[in-house]
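Q: I'm a student working through a structural biology exercise. My instructor gave each of us a protein and asked us to get a predicted structure, then write a short paragraph describing it. Mine is GH3 family. I'm not confident about reading structure output yet, so if you can add a plain explanation after the tokens, that would really help. Here is the sequence I was given:
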Amino acid sequence: MFNNSYVPGLDKGKGLYFLFVKSESKTSGGLPARPVLTSYYKSDHFKRRPYDPYNVYTSPNEAILCSDSSQSMYAQMLCGLLMRHEVLRLGAVFASGLLRAISFLQNNWKELARDISTGTLSSRIFDPAIKNRMSKILTKPDQELAEFLVGVCSQENWEGIITKIWPNTKYLDVIVTGAMAQYIPTLEYYSGGLPMACTMYASSESYFGINLKPMCKPSEVSYTIMPNMAYFEFLPHNHDGDGAAEASLDETSLVELANVEVGKEYELVITTYAGLCRYRVGDILRVTGFHNSAPQFKFIRRKNVLLSIESDKTDEAELQKAVENASRLFAEQGTRVIEYTSYAETKTIPGHYVIYWELLGRDQSNALISEEVMAKCCLEMEESLNSVYRQSRVADNSIGPLEIRVVQNGTFEELMDYAISRGASINQYKVPRCVSFTPIMELLDSRVVSAHFSPSLPHWSPERRR
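A: Happy to help. First, here is the predicted structure for GH3 family. I'll explain a few features afterward.
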């Protein structure tokens, strides 16, 4: 593993990685349809992998392969605590996943400490495979460790909690590029400023590249494309919008791997060994340089994606449809949504979608809708979002309830005035459908008259795919 040239001694300890399988469905032909990591974890390549001193996990396979995320998380956290002095690195696939693990510890440290103190496993674990495996790990009481955990976790200030509990941790192994960059300040708070290593760039479609400087700052991460993973082509990206990216893929519009230019942005197009032909991944990349002849790219963003907490991706058209569907619930009252915007709230764990609504009633004023109806609107919006979002809400618990914040009448006019004061053209101004700029957030939040959350989980089931 190339990280050892930057962080020596990784073969002397273990990695505490929070890894999970996700629910899967079947195609109409009976084939399993599931995320690539779930497929890998369930394969013999993972379950029967040869011993590698540089890749020893604290989490047993039985915990990783448990489809119940709560039991899986509990067992993985318990193992990480029991082996706390052996842990040299903490990780998860996404930054949000690692923060979810910290939140889980905040909510369950008393029960975990009790298990360690008594040497017995909590009754919340009923998966036979996990119970059998944990009986060989949690073999005796450890009162000293239990008292240590109580002393550390009972404090109100959790700054640097990662290095307090796992003092030998050298870095965090998480993806913090793209939408995950929003979690960097929170990770720095909990880790006491540990380095964050972004080692690879991949998706379910293909493995794309690696970061040859894994210990660099997150803002400096560039991935070197590995040309043997697939056939890579690039569609020049138009900064004025995604119009160029919507053009048909032909020989004249695509740029080959060797011909990309430093500083320019492209949409990634791949042809894979598995059968994808000129598949548009939807990632916008900027060329930062070359390693020998292989180009290096900085991940900029997902094309057209407005909101993302973890693996979910909600675009403008989908958000618009969700708002329209929800607003029908009070249309008969003569009330309508006249403007809206959104943002991904990640200060809470798990993060959740926040939608700002400005309402207009029959009397041309900001309408008042009952709490019950607004709660139904929140749930209706969630029902209108894609299956990945709903799976994250229902099965993975990685996204919290959607929130609608109703703002005062005239708020979006103030938002436009603010944009114009900063140089925007009054003729070309469009309400941003997603916001993140702090002064805009402060303006919106200062005008909130009521806030409402989804009262229950949206419908989701591992439906058969066509």
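A: Here are two points you could use in your paragraph. The first helix runs from residue 36 to 41. The mean pLDDT is 89. It's a good idea to check both against the output above yourself.
Q: Great, thank you!
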